[in-house]
Each structure stands twice: as structure tokens, then as C-alpha cells.
Fold this sequence. Notes:
Layout: E1 2-4, H1 8-20, E2 43-50, E3 55-58, E4 64-72, E5 77-84, E6 93-99, E7 103-109, E8 118-126, E9 140-147, E10 156-158, E11 162-174, H2 176-180, E12 184-185, E13 189-190, E14 198-211, E15 213-215, E16 223-231, E17 250-257, E18 263-268, E19 280-287, E20 293-295, E21 299-300, E22 309-310, E23 315-316, H3 330-346
Amino acid sequence: MSTIPLSRRHRMLLMAAAAAGVVVAPFGLRTAAACSPVVMPGYGSFIANTPIDGATDVPINGAVILDVETLVGEPQKTTVSVSETDTGIPVAGGFNSYFWDRAFLVWLPAQPLRPGTRYRVDAAIVSEIPRPAKATGAAEMSFAFITGSGPVPPIALQGQMQVRIETYQRDREDWRRCYAMSACTSSCGCDTSKCAPTIVHEQASRARVTLPVVSGGLTDPGYVALVRVTADSPYQFPTGPDTTATGVLATGSTLALQENAASEMLFDLDQGQQGAAYRPCFALRVTDFVDNVRDGDPVCLAETVQPVRNLDQGCRVAGAGGNEGVWSCLGSLALLLLGARRRHARGG
């Protein structure tokens, strides 16, 4: 039997880790209260399951998917056990919890299941408070299915990804001054009652990527598409988990990518940029929840990604500590207006 705490925050962190292929470090909101969040005890319900009860021809490496609804607060934990119906022999496996467009659990066997065999699934949500009599769904669920003769089909990609580079303007919060004042920590973020950020106006570059159409593999709950960006030559995905990402300058990901559906992603290209222009190459990997992997053809562009350009000297918002006052942007604004007037006078 597998047991795991059922926490919305845990699901979202796992989701991010699965998408980016990196270890998720702890982080906090930019308030002092974020260091000690209060988790309200609660209860949850199972609202759907895949395979359905009585399903046949289930792939031997398929996943058991349990849709979960957290109704109040956070349940304490969830348990899932799978066994052969005829013999009662338990099946080794484990599961993770996720939150994409919905909350769900995915149980995977440690080894492929036996072909043509009936299996039973028993799952339960252990809640910290009594469930109301009118609560929807169920706190416990049992169902059975019969495996087919083989695994899920391999993932197939139709066409090649298309990439377009866009230049845009953005506002960024610069917290360096707050860190220098010891108003921030790496684990808890910044205390906004003591310090406010500088708002920096920048010109940056981003990639608009149109993904090829995906089919095959385990189609539910969907695929994960990961794009790695490197300079001059394409990134080489490893055979196993992609956790190091050496030389990667930017990463984009899409969750819950659906079968035979067009999909697009948009992400910044300056995540790992070191202040120099580079010619970007894009490498694509698509995976499903039973570790099927398909790498797409890489795309290298002739155009270059330019470094982020600071459009002004930065403007700090009003300080919240009572003694900092306001650093206005009148100087920068005056320069912008003067430049606009001169262009207008020249007829430009």
C-alpha cells in the first residue's frame, strides 16, 4: 500500500518539478507571514477514476488515475493499494499527487502488470475532520479492471515545432536593495512591511513555440512538453531523468497537453542569459505518465537573442515602513517627454 500526504501545495510543487525537470527549492511569499502558513484541517473526496470499474484491455504499464476534490482545508493523507483479484497478491507501486486543470493522483506499478489478469484497486482519503453527511464524492473507492496483452503505444509527433522570437517590454521587481537591508531571506522571501522593491522597466525577448501534434502513449491525464534553449547547438536530452540541464539558457513547459490538439507555449529567453547575445537552438521532449518519451526535431534560428535592456534607471514604489517616503520617477518621465517633444518637432 502506498501512502502520501495530500496537499495542494505539494501537488503544485510536484507539477512544477515534473515540467521543468529540476528539483523544486522551498520558496515563500513576500511577507513575513509566509514563513509560518496555517493549514486548515479538512476533508476531500474521490470524484472519478481511470480505468473505470470493469474496464478490459488495460495496458500492462498503464496508470491508475484518481480524480480528487479537496472540499475544505487539506486532508491528512491518501492511501492506494492494488492487488491481483484472484490471488490477493499485492502489487508493488507508488503514486504522486498533481494539480493541473484538476487535482488527481497517479499510481504506477513498479513492474509491468501481468497480461490478462484482473486487478483490484482500493483507495481512501484520511481526513482530519468528520465528513458532512451531504458531502459529494466518496472518501473510499474500490474498483477492478482486466489487463490486455501489451503496453501503451509509443508517443508519436506529427510535424515539427515552429519558433518565433518576440521583443516586448515588461516591468520587473528588483529586490536587491531589500536583501541588502536584510529584509529578505532565501526561504521566506521579503517582508514588505520593511522594504519595497524597485520597479525596473526592461526590453526583453521571448519565444512563441507552436508544438507538433502529439498522439499515442498514455493520453490521460495528458502529456508534458519540455523545451530546452541553448546557444548555437541543440541541447542533448539524457536517456534518463533530465535533472542537470547543463548549458541551458531558458526552459519552457506545457502541462496536460492533450492528444491530437494544437498547443502553443510562450516563455522568456533570458532565464540563464549572461548579458550577451546568442543564437538560440530549441530542443523538444514530450513525455507521458508511464515514462514514454519522444524527442522532436531540434530547431536552430539564424537570428540572435539580444540581452535584456534596461529602459530607465528604476523607480522604487512608496516605502511601507513609514520613514522611507517615495522615490518618484519624475526625472525619467521628464526625459521621456522631452524626447517625444523633440521627435514631434522634427516631424518624426
